[in-house]
Amino acid sequence: MTGDLSPIDKAKFVAARRAADLVEDGMRVGLGTGSTAAWLVRCLGEAVRDDGLKIRGVPTSARTAALAREVGIEVISLDEARWLDITIDGADEFDADLNLIKGGGGALLQEKIVATASDRMVVIADAGKEVEALGAFPLPAEVIPFGWQTTRALIEETLVGMDVLGRDITLRMNGDRPFVTDEGNHILDLHLRRIGNPRQLALVLNQLPGVVENGLFLDICDTVVVGHGDGRVELR
Ligand code: 5RP
């Protein structure tokens, strides 16, 4: 499954493999999105196939749903599951309080809904994702397409009063067209460089009409499994 991996892919793989050990027979499992989460889905698929692990997975994106089915994981919807035992997902940044920036893969809305509906959220990440303060990675905000430029202007205005270092906002593109999420929305990437008060920012952003959700995951993650390029794994 792994072949010759670069140090970063090895770090993602070992984190995913360690987190897969947390999944037990009969669990309903939230399956994250992104390259690290894809390793997790492959590891779980292997356990289903080779060890007879019986789980039902709730994917956080169409991409993950396709991969989960391909590797033999039974896929159900969140509404069928109602509640999940565990969600395992990647992240773009995490800090010492296990707060996160997510959404680099554009799946933040479904990821946040699924993680919030879980007894436990475990993040899998390479060590490079750990930061002192969130915000070097652009913060994604999912916005509805109607009037997105007006929403961007509103966010720009709102950022003036916020404890951030940068205020550029870009529309995420997919080639020469705006990126479209699984829910049919667009993503604005907020280049803030440093977020002084993530809690205040998350609340204020979600109050703006047009903003569906933001990529700050605060008080949601319980554990981060950190992988290193030399194969070491640490739990936070
Ligand atoms: C997708 C996400 C991903 O978990 C995040 O972007 C990390 O991705 P990767 O594992 O590929 O580095 O939030 O919306």
Automatic annotation (TrEMBL):
<feature type="binding site">
    <location>
        <position position="129"/>
    </location>
    <ligand>
        <name>substrate</name>
    </ligand>
</feature>
<dbReference type="InterPro" id="IPR037171">
    <property type="entry name" value="NagB/RpiA_transferase-like"/>
</dbReference>
<comment type="subunit">
    <text>Homodimer.</text>
</comment>
<dbReference type="InterPro" id="IPR004788">
    <property type="entry name" value="Ribose5P_isomerase_type_A"/>
</dbReference>
<feature type="binding site">
    <location>
        <begin position="89"/>
        <end position="92"/>
    </location>
    <ligand>
        <name>substrate</name>
    </ligand>
</feature>
<comment type="similarity">
    <text>Belongs to the ribose 5-phosphate isomerase family.</text>
</comment>
<keyword id="KW-0413">Isomerase</keyword>
<dbReference type="GO" id="GO:0009052">
    <property type="term" value="P:pentose-phosphate shunt, non-oxidative branch"/>
</dbReference>
<protein>
    <recommendedName>
        <fullName>Ribose-5-phosphate isomerase A</fullName>
        <ecNumber>5.3.1.6</ecNumber>
    </recommendedName>
</protein>
<feature type="binding site">
    <location>
        <begin position="102"/>
        <end position="105"/>
    </location>
    <ligand>
        <name>substrate</name>
    </ligand>
</feature>
<dbReference type="InterPro" id="IPR020672">
    <property type="entry name" value="Ribose5P_isomerase_typA_subgr"/>
</dbReference>
<dbReference type="GO" id="GO:0004751">
    <property type="term" value="F:ribose-5-phosphate isomerase activity"/>
</dbReference>
<dbReference type="GO" id="GO:0005829">
    <property type="term" value="C:cytosol"/>
</dbReference>
<comment type="function">
    <text>Catalyzes the reversible conversion of ribose-5-phosphate to ribulose 5-phosphate.</text>
</comment>
<dbReference type="GO" id="GO:0006014">
    <property type="term" value="P:D-ribose metabolic process"/>
</dbReference>
<comment type="pathway">
    <text>Carbohydrate degradation; pentose phosphate pathway; D-ribose 5-phosphate from D-ribulose 5-phosphate (non-oxidative stage): step 1/1.</text>
</comment>
<feature type="active site" description="Proton acceptor">
    <location>
        <position position="111"/>
    </location>
</feature>
<dbReference type="Pfam" id="PF06026">
    <property type="entry name" value="Rib_5-P_isom_A"/>
</dbReference>
<feature type="binding site">
    <location>
        <begin position="33"/>
        <end position="36"/>
    </location>
    <ligand>
        <name>substrate</name>
    </ligand>
</feature>
